[in-house]
Design goal:
The protein is built from seven helices and nine strands; from the N terminus they run βββββααααββββααα. With about 250 residues, the protein is an alpha+beta fold. The chain folds into two domains: about 80 residues, Nucleic acid-binding proteins (OB fold (Dihydrolipoamide Acetyltransferase, E2P), Beta Barrel); about 170 residues, de novo design (two linked rop proteins) (Up-down Bundle), CATH 1.20.1440.120. α2 packs antiparallel against α3 and α2 runs parallel beside α4.
């Protein structure tokens, strides 16, 4: 059967001497794997279509298993992301995270639009830490691990005037009286909690220009990283590379 879809390349790998297999996050058909014959050859007309982050229209034939590309057209190449180390690193993380967390049937219009909005925001040079933190929040929610941030996860009471602690292990916030249930729970500033709650309500398509202080930005990054590690525990190559970049101050 012949399919025509709009999709974003979230993974591209060599196959044989001159071929590539790409994984597409499509708007209408979830995640699909497509074999692109001859894509590695210098004069291949499909070479640009297999580049990571490329958004295009793909026409492929598929019965079962992998599809085989017949034709394609680039809608947005996002070459700016591939040409900048920092942007490429964050974009790779966004793609790998989606690929690893969500099953084929879970991806669709919503996730296609979230990923596209993430790549577009990175292209527009919005703060990659803020963009990634919001994206991680959406991933956690989609995987069923969205943190409980409005009231204490232990006693269930709202304590608007009291300092709350973030417990990545328990998956939410703890009031002072319940902190003993998770002694390593992290203190969180009111600004960081307000931003996290905003992230829980927003999706990336609605994100405008948010001005975040460096301190709050670093706090959000630390909290979201802890949630991701405790709730999902994924070992991602792109995450490790981001860690190395941070370690060496890149």
């Amino acid at each position: 059967m012949l399919y025509r879809v709009e999709g974003i390349v979230i993974r591209s790998m060599d196959y044989g001497e001159g071929n590539k297999i790409i994984t597409l996050c499509t708007e209408s058909g979830g995640k699909v794997g497509v074999l692109v014959r001859g894509a590695k050859k210098p004069k291949s007309r499909h070479a640009a279509l297999v580049q990571p982050f490329t958004y295009g229209q793909y026409v492929y034939f598929r019965n079962t298993g992998l599809g085989t590309l017949n034709a394609g057209e680039i809608i947005e190449s996002y070459h700016e992301l591939r040409e900048d180390l920092i942007k490429a690193s964050y974009a790779s993380y966004a793609c790998e995270l989606l690929d690893r967390v969500l099953q084929d049937e879970e991806t669709g219009t919503f996730w296609f639009k979230q990923l596209k909005a993430c790549l577009q925001a990175l292209k527009e040079e919005k703060d990659p830490v803020v963009i990634t933190s919001l994206y991680e929040m959406k991933i956690l929610q989609a995987a069923g691990y969205g943190p409980q941030l409005d009231d204490c996860i232990s006693c269930g009471h709202e304590r608007p005037d009291e300092q709350l602690f973030v417990s990545p292990r328990l998956g939410g916030v703890l009031c002072r009286a319940c902190k003993h249930f998770d002694p390593p729970a992290m203190s969180a500033s009111p600004k960081a909690l307000k931003l996290l709650r905003l992230f829980a309500q927003l999706d990336l398509q609605r994100l405008g220009n948010i001005s975040v202080s460096e301190g709050t930005r670093d706090e959000i990054k630390k909290i979201m990283r802890a949630f991701m590690d405790h709730q999902l525990g994924l070992n991602l190559k792109s995450r490790s590379f981001l860690d190395q970049m941070e370690k060496y101050g890149i």
